[in-house]
Known about the structure:
The chain has 91 residues and is mainly α. The protein contains five helices and no strands. Keywords: Membrane, Transmembrane, Transmembrane helix.
Amino acid sequence: xxxxxxxxxxxxxxxxxxxxxxxxxxxxxxxxxxxxxxxxxxxxxxxxxxxxxxxxxxxxxxxxxxxxxxxxxxxxxxxxxxxxxxxxxxx
Length: 91
């Protein structure tokens, strides 16, 4: 994996440094990040929905707080949605 990273260093500067500091998993992540940028949007999408389902699971455990949270934090939910859309459209 290190050989592939070193041959593609011109496309992704700092790839070899990131791979050496983060070990095997880091080198694979940097390799995918540098060679397939279209996966970045998919990765952001997956992370967002994992967090969303954890939040949903938390709400089902505490049902009496759902309505209070939604009405008090409607602007926070809008900000999170806007940030998600910016990340997906950017990558």
